[in-house]
TrEMBL record:
Family, similarity comment: Belongs to the sigma-70 factor family. ECF subfamily.
NCBIfam families per record: PRK12512.1 (NF009165), sigma70-ECF (TIGR02937)
One Pfam match: Sigma70_r2
Descriptive protein name: RNA polymerase sigma-70 region 2 domain-containing protein
Parts of the chain that traverse the membrane: 184-206, 218-238, 250-271, 291-309, 321-339, 351-371
Higher taxonomy: Eukaryota, Fungi, Fungi incertae sedis, Zoopagomycota, Zoopagomycotina
GO MF: DNA binding; sigma factor activity
Coiled coil region boundaries: none
Keyword annotations: DNA-binding, Membrane, Sigma factor, Transcription, Transcription regulation, Transmembrane, Transmembrane helix
Ranges of residues in domain RNA polymerase sigma-70 region: 39-87
């Protein structure tokens, strides 16, 4: 795969040929466990190969290839079973176990295919993108493209090719490479931040006593917390954009903003013991505005983040969308902090956190739909 990504089309062709029997055996095993006809495996194999081709830029050259491949295969098998009305657990060992056994003969007869992008008319290309890449059903595809279900089926039936022909087509298309998800996310946020900033300046603006407030460590702490949240969520989102990645220890990055808030609350109690009661500081004077402003300012940032992360291959789209929401909320809260006159860490811990949770929920809902591959 390393040679293939470096532009070696012959190596890419050999790789796809080598993994096809493994993918076929895994697909047949998964279909059998779900009580589905195993002769439908070839369509799934072709969907997996196309996904491998479209998402090959998400493979980390310093990481093993097999977990990345099997994560994509498992995802496409689950999507195929879901389209058939089946909700089952698919064990990744359905694919990995194949490596330990004897070589599988590549003798399954070619069947109807739903994957072929190059050289297709626009309507056929749109149908293929929706069904094979976006994992939409015939009904969903028809609604999205303003076609009848019969027309979608008829269009899909015209797009048949032998798996070997597909491999040759994909290998020949290896010259085109996607930019990394990290670069795309950075570019998307660079475009979205000015939009959210313009909304902030038009609707809220910077607080009038900002120069005085800057001498208050609690005011400065708000920015440290929100930026720490955004930075941690960006790192985690990029990790989850790879199909084989898991959250794991990276979740501890969220402990950084939480720790800063904890330190701030202890410092506030020790250094300013005569301030307003805890309940008063927690409620503040801008709680309702906080719950509205941060989610609204987050929307352009969230949309940009989801567009960029869609170029990845997240195996947990809802979780990835939630972290996209958190990074958007962190950046939006940084803007809002310049307006908010409630500087108490208790206020930030309560209301900023609630606003971030709202955006994370929106991101999870949107991600479950738009980040599937």
């Amino acid at each position: 795969m390393r040679s293939a990504n470096a532009g070696d089309n012959a190596a890419y062709h050999r790789l796809l040929k080598a993994v096809t029997p493994v993918l076929r055996a895994g697909a047949r095993r998964g279909l059998a466990r779900a009580g589905q006809p195993v002769d439908q495996s070839e369509d799934i194999v072709q969907d997996i190969l196309l996904a491998v081709h479209l998402k090959r830029h998400t493979w980390d050259a310093n990481a093993p290839f097999a977990p990345w491949l099997f994560a994509i295969a498992r995802n496409k098998l689950i999507d195929a079973l879901r389209r058939r009305g089946r909700r089952v657990f698919v064990n990744i060992d359905d694919f990995s176990e194949t490596l330990a056994g004897a070589p599988v003969e590549d003798s399954v007869a070619p069947s109807e295919v739903t994957t072929h992008l190059n050289g297709l008319p626009k309507r056929q290309r749109d149908v293929l993108q929706s069904i094979a890449v976006d994992s939409a059903s015939i009904k969903e595809t028809a609604a999205k493209l303003s076609m009848t279900e019969g027309a979608v089926r008829q269009t899909a039936e015209r797009m048949t090719m032998d798996t070997n022909d597909l491999i040759r087509t994909l290998a020949a298309d290896n010259d085109t490479h996607e930019r990394s998800v990290g670069h795309l996310l950075l570019a998307a946020l660079v475009l979205a931040v000015p939009v959210s900033t313009a909304l902030f300046l038009a609707g809220l603006g910077v607080r009038s006593d900002v120069m005085t407030a800057m001498r208050n460590p609690m005011f400065d702490l708000k920015f440290a917390v929100t930026l720490a949240l955004a930075a941690g969520a960006i790192v985690i989102s990029l990790r989850l954009s790879r199909p084989e990645a898991s959250l794991g220890r990276w979740a501890w990055l969220l402990a950084v903003p939480a720790g800063l808030l904890g330190i701030g609350m202890m410092g506030e109690m020790m250094m300013m013991p005569n301030r307003a009661p805890m309940a008063t500081r927690m409620v503040g004077s801008n709680s309702k505005l906080c719950l509205v402003a941060i989610p609204l300012l987050s929307l352009p940032l969230l949309a940009a983040a989801l567009v960029a992360l869609r170029r990845g291959a997240p195996s947990r789209p809802a979780v990835t969308g939630a972290f996209a929401g958190l990074l958007s909320a962190g950046l939006a809260a940084t803007l809002y902090a310049a307006h908010c006159t409630d500087d108490s860490p208790m206020f930030v811990a309560t209301w900023y956190s609630m606003a971030a949770a709202i955006v994370a929920a929106i991101g999870a809902l949107a991600g479950s739909r738009v980040l599937r591959f």
